């Protein structure tokens, strides 16, 4: 034993010594150059896998070391990578590093060298780089002697990234062309056989990929290509979450983001779930959800990593959760209903996961009649209370975990109906009493019980009629469940009528009314009042009953014009004295009649008031036809006929409106209502408030004016149709004018005529004597005016007649009608017998003015006063001596008389007046002569017999009333 | 692999076999239609008339450089394509036609499979590939009947082109184009020979 201990001690000492020596040696030389170096090409990852080793002692010391790695392409290239790779050496673990190259590694040879340095805190003093390893060459395909394009096969590239291709020719310096979707590519000659092409920012073109190809030789005889697929960048999955419905299967979902352009089967994006606690992995079939089988009761915490990856990229997202807090429970099976009674029902359901470590909160919703009531419970059953009998209910239940809310389960629904119960309340009963020959016909109405009072299906109604007289009699009737009225004949007695509803469980409280015919007899004395409708209905008010009624009842018919009038009633309390009666059946233009009853404590009803009215009055459906009578200049009478009656109509018939429109405009008098229309037409409206009145006098009209009249019947809803009539008033009354003015005038005129006839001689003497009195001639007044007052009387001896006019009476008449006497040669003039010689000289020297005295002419007695005639000779040959002149005149005149019938010739008296300057019409030319011998006096008048033979001028030598100046001067 | 490849392939088969009454292929010959020659001719005419269009749809679906380099990428240079001698006997021509159609049928199956993956949106091309394959299957059946009934040939050794499953994508496109170019050329000669 001692020997063994001795040897063991020696062994340990030797070992310690060896270790110490070794350590010392190593401390001196803690530099570990690369002992072996090797490279591999992983084409699919474009990875140059570099593996190397150092002295094994470095591994045993678990040294932390830095390795500097240089990589260059071909021997002529600069270093493309200088990497410091730090790692801690582990025994039996290969030192390895992957260099990813943008250029496909097959394109050319790559050279690698490595050196090392200890970077361990334990040996800070030994940080020295080792020597470089020799270059290790990874051969490319450029020495293969074949045509190549790299990368080869299909490649996947994310959009907007840069892609590097290389074309390798068979021999050195061959002509190489490269093409990719007609994109520019930067060309770089890497070696005599290898040319690199870089395409930047590639974009998606089509799902089928794009061809990138190299053409070699001048004739492009060889083409090598590769198909490039552009993929969208994989997005990081969003909204990654997991939940369980049963604590057996976990369902994880996420939003994968946008499509990466590729069909899933072509370039799939793989999704996988990795759970760190269990170190299990599941490859997901779908791109947005995955399932995971839970191990029950063993593990609650889960730490998942979701990985999305494709050929190009990999994305990860993590989630850590307690699975018991992410439970969405579910209700399995149907909800069962237990213990359903009239007012209660118990619901029961089953929840999974059914585990004791989980508690749940459940929500119950009960739907009925459009309302919902919500209850909560932590149990799996719940009793609903205070339900309505015989009522259908709809319920639904959902649950969630109580300790940690995650999600509600889905709703589960169940419908049920409670049981029937005895009807509650009493029927609303009313009646109509109508006298008939045998007594009174009583119609009893009732309203069906509402559902909440019927408490079941009403099977029938029971009506009990009991006399209230001395002789008691009771009759019982039944009515069907769908009826709401019945009809009985009663006598003069009062009856107590009770009505009750029955369902399968029992009867409602009987409703009692007392009916007596007397109550209806009193209705005859009640007058009907009109009421107005409102937008809501018809407003009724009544006087409070002095007998203190227990309540009031208003009844009416919804369809008063129909045989089945839909009888209605409403009951009011004793304090109510007004109400608005509403009904969906109310229509505008329909008159509704209301009766208001008071109800005594003995259930007796007595009529209080009667009302009638419309919800809205409409215009009458009639058209008065109007006629006009007694048309005068300022008034007329309108009559009309119509079929407008008070009932049945569309409103209360109140009377007529008469519209008057004047075509000339004007204003309306005070009795009318003036209506102005937009087109400035003024219409005057008369109102006739009597429906019986069919005539109307219109006054204060304008004479000779046209009016339009229209008569319309009116109600509160407006006017009916009307017919127009157009009337024109007459002129003012002429008969009165005739009677008052013209008739007296005519009368007095007649008297005047009679008087004049009786005094004709006197008038003649005064007004137009046969021989006028020269002293009364008006000429005298002229003379006086001239200042010759001494010659007030015309002296006939002073004048010598120079001519005598012989006038044929009949021709004179004609000539006077023409009013052309002595005005021209062409006109037949009275023939003159010139008694004095005439001549040109005389005429030229002096002209005289002759006045024909018509008073001496028989035919001119009623002619105008004497006219001034200027005699102007026209024929100079006629200026001869007086004798000759007279002879010629006589000769001519005899000739002319031959043509005058005997008896028609008469005498005319001709007065000759000497020329007078004041009267002369040619004053200028004759002034000197007039001054020498003024001629302002009448010449002598001569009466000549028509039978005397005289020489007269022929008719065609006229005018010839010219006298010789010599002959005229002297006498004047 | 297409179904025909499996059905028809027999190890060591290289030439028409003698009549074997027990051969199950020829036991079914009573089900063959009577107008076989007419049907074969019609089917060949159908293939011949549709081959140029199929070829055009194919190379257009592959994109550049196929359209612009038909002579290099789509020339009818298929080395192992079964021969056809138009001046041979009817039986020899039928046997050679059988080999050609079997070869084409298998190759069209490969092309259809590749194009479904490479150009899933090229529906007109895929439709024509399916139609052509269906006609070829019918033609193979008719040829089988004809050989059995008339010449009592129950088995013909056939060869197939290279499987493109492991080829790179561009190579698949190129091989398909070569084959369809060859098909267009050969089917014209065969149709004229029948």
Taking the sheet with the most strands of chain B, its summary is: none
Largest sheet of chain A: 6 strands, antiparallel
Distance between the termini of chain B: 30 Å
The top-level CATH class of the domain at 428-614 in chain A is Mainly Beta
Stretches with pLDDT under 50, minimum 5 residues of chain B: 1-22
Query: Largest interface, per-chain counts?
Result: A-B, 24 and 20 residues
**Oligomeric category:** heterodimer
Transmembrane segments (chain A): 737-758
Family (chain A): Belongs to the type I cytokine receptor family. Type 2 subfamily.
Membrane topology (chain A): Single-pass type I membrane protein
Keywords (chain A): Cell membrane, Disulfide bond, Glycoprotein, Membrane, Phosphoprotein, Receptor, Repeat, Signal, Transmembrane, Transmembrane helix
Your description of this structure?
- The complex is a heterodimer of chains A (972) and B (194).
- Chain A is 13% helix and 38% strand.
- Chain A is mainly beta and 972 residues long.
- In chain A, the strands form 16 sheets. In chain A, strands 46, 47, 48, 50, 51 and 52 form a six-stranded antiparallel β-sheet that branches. Chain A has a five-stranded mixed β-sheet with strand order 37-43-42-39-40, with no helix packed on it.
- Chain A starts with a helix and ends with a helix.
- Mean pLDDT of chain A is 78; it is low at 9-27, 810-829 and 838-972.
- Chain B has 194 residues and is an all-alpha fold.
- Chain B has one domain: Growth Hormone, Chain: A, CATH 1.20.1250.
- Chain B has seven helices and no strands.
- Chain B has helices spanning 3-8, 24-27, 36-62, 70-73, 90-118, 123-151, 169-193.
- In chain B, helix 3 (36-62) runs antiparallel to helix 6.
- The longest helix of chain B has 29 residues, at 90-118.
- The chains are: A mainly beta (972), B mainly alpha (194).
- The interface between A and B is medium-sized, with 24 and 20 residues.
């Amino acid at each position: 034993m001692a020997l063994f201990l001795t040897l063991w001690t020696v062994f340990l000492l030797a070992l310690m010594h060896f270790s110490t020596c070794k350590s010392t040696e190593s401390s001196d030389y803690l530099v570990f150059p690369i002992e072996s170096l090797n490279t591999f090409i992983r084409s699919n990852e474009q990875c140059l896998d570099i593996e190397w080793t150092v002295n094994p002692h470095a591994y045993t010391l678990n040294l932390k070391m830095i390795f500097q790695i240089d990589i260059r392409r071909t021997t002529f290239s600069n270093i493309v990578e200088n990497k410091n790779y730090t790692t801690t050496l582990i025994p039996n673990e290969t030192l390895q590093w992957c260099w990813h190259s943008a250029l496909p590694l097959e394109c050319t040879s790559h050279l690698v060298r490595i050196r090392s340095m200890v970077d361990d805190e334990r040996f800070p003093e030994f940080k020295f780089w080792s020597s470089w390893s020799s270059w290790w060459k990874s051969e490319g395909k450029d020495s293969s002697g074949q045509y190549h394009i790299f990368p080869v096969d299909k490649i996947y590239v994310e959009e907007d990234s840069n892609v590097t291709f290389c074309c390798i020719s068979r021999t050195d310096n061959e002509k190489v062309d490269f093409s990719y979707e007609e994109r520019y590519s930067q060309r770089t000659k890497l070696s005599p056989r290898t040319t690199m092409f870089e395409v930047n920012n590639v974009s998606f073109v089509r799902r089928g990929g794009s061809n990138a190809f190299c053409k070699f030789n001048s004739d492009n005889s060889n083409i090598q290509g590769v198909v490039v697929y552009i993929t969208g960048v994989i997005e990081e999955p969003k909204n990654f979450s997991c939940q369980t419905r049963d604590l057996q299967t976990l369902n994880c979902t996420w939003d994968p983001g946008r499509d990466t352009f590729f069909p899933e089967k072509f370039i799939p994006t793989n999704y996988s779930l990795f759970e760190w606690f269990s170190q299990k992995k599941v490859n997901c079939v779908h791109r947005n959800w995955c399932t995971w089988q839970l191990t029950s009761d063993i593990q609650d915490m889960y730490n998942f990593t979701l990985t999305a990856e494709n050929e190009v990229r990999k994305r990860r997202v993590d989630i850590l959760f307690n699975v018991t807090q992410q439970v969405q429970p579910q209700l399995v099976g149907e909800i069962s209903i237990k213990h359903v009674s009239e007012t209660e029902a118990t619901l029961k359901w089953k929840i999974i996961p059914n585990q004791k470590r989980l508690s749940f909160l459940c929500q119950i919703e009960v739907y009925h009649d459009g309302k919902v009531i919500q209850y909560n419970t932590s149990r799996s059953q719940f009793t609903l209370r205070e339900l309505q009998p015989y009522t259908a209910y709809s319920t639904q239940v959902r649950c969630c975990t109580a300790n940690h809310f995650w999600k509600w389960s889905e709703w589960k629904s169940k419908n049920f109906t409670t049981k029937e119960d005895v009807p509650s309340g009493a029927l609303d009963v009313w009646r109509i009493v109508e006298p008939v020959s045998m007594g009174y016909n009583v119609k009893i109405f009732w309203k069906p019980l509402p559902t909440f009072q019927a408490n079941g299906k009403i099977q029938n109604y029971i009506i009990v009629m009991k006399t209230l007289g001395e002789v008691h009699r009771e009759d019982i009737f039944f009515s069907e469940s769908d009826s709401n009225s019945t009809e009985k004949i009663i006598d003069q007695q009062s009856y107590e009528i009770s009505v009750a509803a029955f369902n399968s469980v029992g009867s409602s409280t009987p409703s009692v009314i007392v009916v007596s015919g007397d109550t209806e007899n009193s209705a005859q004395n009640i007058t009907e009042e009109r009421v107005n409708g409102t937008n809501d209905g018809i407003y009724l008010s009544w006087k409070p009953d002095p007998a203190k009624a227990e309540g009031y009842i208003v009844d009416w018919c919804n369809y008063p014009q129909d045989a089945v009038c839909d009888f209605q009633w409403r009951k009011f309390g004793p304090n109510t004295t007004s109400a608005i009666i509403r009904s969906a059946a109310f229509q505008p233009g329909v008159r509704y009649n209301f009766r208001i009853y008071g109800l005594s404590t003995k259930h007796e009803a007595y009529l209080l008031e009667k009302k009638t009215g419309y919800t809205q009055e409409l215009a009458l459906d009639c058209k008065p036809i109007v006629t006009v009578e007694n048309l005068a200049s300022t008034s007329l009478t309108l009559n009309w006929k119509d079929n407008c009656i008070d009932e049945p109509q569309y409103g209360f018939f109140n009377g007529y409106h008469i519209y008057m429109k004047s075509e000339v405009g004007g204003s309306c008098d005070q009795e009318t209502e003036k209506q102005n229309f937009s087109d400035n037409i003024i219409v005057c409206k008369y109102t006739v408030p009597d429906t019986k009145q069919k005539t109307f006098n219109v006054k204060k009209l304008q004479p000779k004016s046209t009016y339009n009249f229209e008569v319309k019947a009116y109600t509160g809803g407006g006017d009916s149709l009307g017919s127009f009539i157009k009337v024109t008033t007459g002129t003012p009354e002429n008969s009165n004018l005739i009677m008052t003015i013209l008739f007296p005038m005519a009368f007095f005129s007649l008297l005047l005529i009679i008087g004049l006839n009786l005094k004709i001689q006197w008038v003649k003497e005064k007004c137009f004597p046969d021989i006028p009195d020269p002293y009364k001639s008006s000429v005298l007044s002229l003379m006086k005016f001239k200042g010759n007052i001494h010659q007030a009387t015309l002296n006939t001896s002073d004048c010598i007649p120079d001519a005598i006019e012989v006038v044929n009476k009949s021709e004179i008449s004609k000539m006077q009608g023409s009013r052309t006497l002595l005005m021209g040669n062409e006109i037949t003039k009275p023939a003159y017998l010139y008694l004095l010689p005439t001549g040109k000289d005389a005429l030229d020297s002096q002209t005289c003015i002759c006045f024909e005295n018509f008073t001496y002419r028989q035919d001119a007695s009623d002619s105008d006063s004497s006219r001034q005639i200027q005699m102007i000779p026209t024929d100079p040959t006629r200026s001869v001596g007086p004798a000759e002149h007279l002879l010629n005149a006589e000769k001519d005149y005899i000739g002319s008389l031959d043509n005058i019938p005997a008896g028609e010739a008469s005498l005319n008296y001709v007065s000759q007046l000497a020329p007078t300057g004041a009267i002369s019409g040619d004053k200028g030319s004759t002034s000197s002569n007039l001054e020498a011998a003024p001629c302002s006096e009448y010449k002598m008048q001569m009466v000549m017999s028509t039978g005397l033979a005289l020489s007269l001028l022929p008719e065609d030598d006229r005018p010839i009333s010219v006298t010789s100046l010599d002959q005229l001067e002297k006498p004047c | 692999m297409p179904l025909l490849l499996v059905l028809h392939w027999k190890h060591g088969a290289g030439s028409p076999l003698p009549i074997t009454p027990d051969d199950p292929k020829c036991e079914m010959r009573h089900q063959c239609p009577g107008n076989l020659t007419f049907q074969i001719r019609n089917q060949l005419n159908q293939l011949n008339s549709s081959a140029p269009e199929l070829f055009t749809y194919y190379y257009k679906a592959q994109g550049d450089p196929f359209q612009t380099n038909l002579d290099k990428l789509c020339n009818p240079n298929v080395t192992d394509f079964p021969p056809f001698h138009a001046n041979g006997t009817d039986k020899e021509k039928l046997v050679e036609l059988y080999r050609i159609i079997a070869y084409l049928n298998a190759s069209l199956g490969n092309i259809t499979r590749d194009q479904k993956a490479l150009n899933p949106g090229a529906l007109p091309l895929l439709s024509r590939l399916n139609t052509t394959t269906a006609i070829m299957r019918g033609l193979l059946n008719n040829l089988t009947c004809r050989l059995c009934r008339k010449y009592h040939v129950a088995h013909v050794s056939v060869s197939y082109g290279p499987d493109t499953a492991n080829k790179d994508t561009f190579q698949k496109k190129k091989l398909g184009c070569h084959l369809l170019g060859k098909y267009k050329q050969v089917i014209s000669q065969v149709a004229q020979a029948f």
